[in-house]
Automatic annotation (TrEMBL):
Keyword set, alphabetical order: Methylation, Protein biosynthesis
Family: Belongs to the prokaryotic/mitochondrial release factor family.
GO process terms (BP): mitochondrial translational termination
Entry protein name: Mitochondrial translation release factor 1 like
Lineage of the organism: Eukaryota, Metazoa, Chordata, Craniata, Vertebrata
Domain Prokaryotic-type class I peptide chain release factors, first and last residues per copy: 96-112
Length: 231
């Protein structure tokens, strides 16, 4: 009944950009990936936020638990109809790529940086040797960021924005803890704890169970919002 009463989000069918930013420590600071498929955003949208890991490193002699964090952003990828960007609103800069990538990458202006002047949103890419390819990827990420901002503005206009809503709105919120000494994962938004971390991290049935619980909670919040607007 709830599924019939609660409309699906317009972005549920969209592809997405996944961005990961590391907290303190570690060598890899930032990474991004494009994810597509049937209802990609619908299945991934609840991963946005701060993920906390608690573990005892192999180099730890005293057995102390170390905590690290990773911030995940899930940005729905808009279609041409969803978002139109005026080329005059963009400043595109090129520069030499930095870091690993081979001699060719580091001696040509292959890195691309795009600034959306009205909002100040910036997107960069240097992962490809081709400047044209990097420009295409940077533009894809920029469109996703701008679209996410638009969606967040629409959500904030509602009187009762859902607490579980993800995207840039919840990037600073701790959503989940992976505790390796206790072999558990806890999602703080719905206060649900599952055991057997290895199975969960492999994306097996435990991950599906948690995602389904999050979907049900989000649908419940949507229903409450609809009812409150009718009253």
């Amino acid at each position: 009944i709830i599924l019939l009463l609660v409309p699906s989000e317009e972005t549920d069918e969209n592809d997405l950009i996944l961005e990961v930013t590391a907290g303190v420590g570690g060598g890899l600071r930032h990474a991004s990936a494009s994810i597509g498929g049937s209802e990609a955003y619908r299945h991934m949208k609840f991963e946005g936020g701060v993920h906390r890991v608690q573990r005892v490193p192999k180099t730890e002699k005293q057995g102390r638990v170390h905590t690290s964090t990773m911030t995940v952003a899930i940005l729905p990828q808009p279609t041409e109809i969803n978002l139109v960007i005026n080329p005059k609103d963009l400043r595109i800069d090129t520069k030499r790529a930095s870091g690993a990538g081979g001699q060719h990458v580091n001696t040509t202006d292959s890195a691309v940086r795009i600034v959306h002047l009205p909002t100040g949103v910036v997107s960069e890419c240097q992962q490809e040797r081709s400047q044209l390819k990097n420009k295409e990827l940077a533009m894809t990420k920029l469109r996703a960021k701008l679209y996410s901002m638009h969606l967040e503005e629409e959500i904030n206009k509602r009187q009762n924005a859902r607490k579980i809503q993800i995207g840039s709105k919840g990037r600073s919120e701790k959503i989940r803890t992976y505790n390796f000494p206790q072999n558990r994962v806890t999602d703080h938004r719905i206060n649900k704890t599952l055991h057997d971390l290895e199975t969960f991290m492999q994306g097996d049935y435990l991950l599906d169970e948690l995602v389904q619980s999050l979907k049900e909670y989000a649908d419940y919040e949507s229903l409450v919002e609809i009812i409150s607007q009718k009253v």
